[in-house]
Amino acid sequence: MNIxxxxxxxxxxxxxxxxxxxxxxxxxxxxxxxxxxxDYPDVxxxxxxxxxxxxxxxxxxxxxxxxxxxxxxxxxxxxxxxLIYSKEVARLAKEHNNANILVFGGRTMTVDDVIKYxxxxxxxVYEGGRHQRRLDKMDxxx
Length: 142
What we know:
By secondary structure, this protein is an alpha/beta fold.
């Protein structure tokens, strides 16, 4: 599985910590590459293009709170960016929503918690069925 990771300046430190932890994953770093201020919509767009072009199967996005960058990513068709803040939400984001981008807050979450959430998501299995019907409805929304 190809996983892309990206952050704005508010998520830079968390992104770097996740890269150090997940050395066994095929992580592709889409930036930012330092803590200088950048605009989170630009970072989200870069991630969305990686998902849409299938150069990444899953994305991890990080900004200060996770809110802004998730809003930006979810403006694109076919993107299901889920702001993850608990193990239960991580599990359900996969099982029910088949999220293709996980979103975290670099200033609001600990590295240890985010690792638990990512691991929980990765172990979960999309259930399909009634959930696929709902995803299909979202795919035709303007």
